Amino acid sequence: MSQPFDASKSLTTLDQDSTVIAVIEMSQSKWLVAAVVPGVERQPLKKLEANEESLLKPSAPRARGFGASEANAG
C-alpha cells in the first residue's frame, strides 16, 4: 500500500546561498512584497497598491529597491 502524499515534507533541500525567496501578501487594498536575496544583507520590503500593474510591471526605482543595485555593485 502506498503512503499518502505529505506536502509538509520537502523532497529537496533549500540552498539559502543561491535561492531568491519572495513572498507576496495580498489584500483588497494593498499588497506587501518581501524578498530574501543571496548576497544582500537587508531584506527588502515594498508596499504596493492592489492592482496587477503594480506587481507585474515594476518601474526602475522599484526594481532598485529590491537589491538590483547592491547585487551589481559587488
Explain what this protein looks like in three dimensions.
- Helix content is 26%, strand content 24%.
- The chain starts with 20 loop residues before the first strand and ends with a helix.
- With 74 residues, the chain is α+β, with helices and mostly antiparallel strands.
- It has a domain at 16-51.
- Strand 2 (30-36) and strand 3 (45-49) form a beta hairpin.
- The radius of gyration is 16 Å and the shape is flat.
- The model has no long low-confidence stretch (mean pLDDT 75).
- The chain has helices spanning 52-56, 60-73; strands at 21-26, 30-36, 45-49.
- It has a three-stranded antiparallel beta sheet, with helices on one face.
- The longest helix has 14 residues, at 60-73.
- It contains two helices and three strands, in the order E-E-E-H-H.
